[in-house]
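Something for you to look into today, if you have time. What I am after is a single protein written out in full by you. I want to see for myself how the chain folds. Could you add the entry underneath, on a fresh line?
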Amino acid sequence: MFIKLAIGTLLIIGLGAFLAYRKRYRGLALGASLCVLTILTGLWAIFQSRSSTAAVGILFLPFYAVFSGGMAWLYRNLIQAKHRLLRGLGWLALALSVSVPGWLVYSGFESIALNRSRDAQHQANLADMERNRQSIKTLLSDNPGRETEVVESLIAEHTGNRNYLLPLLESRFVTPATVDRLAASDDLGIALSALRHPACPPATLVRIYRTHSYPDYFFQAIASHHNTPPDILVDLYRRPATITGLDRSFASNPATPRDILLEIATTTRENFVVQQLLQNPKFDCTLLSPIEAALNRSERPADSYSRGRLAELQSGLCGQRTH
């Protein structure tokens, strides 16, 4: 990426230097102005986009700038030609030159409009889900003892309604079989919510990890779920990292094997991970010293919660075991 950007930048500088060397000063200032304008409008347009790959567009800006500036320089040199055809080509060159930053500005405003539309849709979805959440709560309170039956009926009735299924998946009355079925949904949001459900069966977590076409999307849920089999947790921890922050999930998961917890304690520099290790039900006193060392090298070595919890363990449970 850096190489392409450097090549494009050198191309702009080289072209300007060549024209100056050949004493083709006419149009050089106009061309340079269009180069700068194209780069500035391009950067503005790129930063309007929320796409994770939008920054890739920066690589192409030098080439757009060279084209726009070159056309502006050509216009300035052709517009005073004696032949009408050459003057006509000059005006065409100007149109092409101006069209590049113009197109970038249009793209920027298009991104702004798309963002507004998506934000409005997101807010509408949140409001709809909240209404459905309250409706579900009322139905469950009106049917004590029949909660599972009611939830299963609602799921069957609203299979294609995402804004109803997501609140339903917050209920503890969803059965493991239904969770397994919803985890196979093509809707990644539905599948992820199903995988996060406390009733998600171990076999479901294994299937998603082993066979899903986009398993990375579910790694955080798999790393933090108490039903994830230990061998899957070890495999996920050992595989090359494709997403960040998984140590937080491993550190808080009571299903995480102790040797993984120890390795995290000896390598982490993150205070939040230290807090999760101290709260993990699998904590034992042999982890106390590595966790204290991790806190000392973290970004918040004086964290009040961690210091208080360490002092409590040292004077209590772990202090008693040393005597």
Observations:
- The chain is about 70% helix and 0% strand.
- The mean pLDDT is 88.
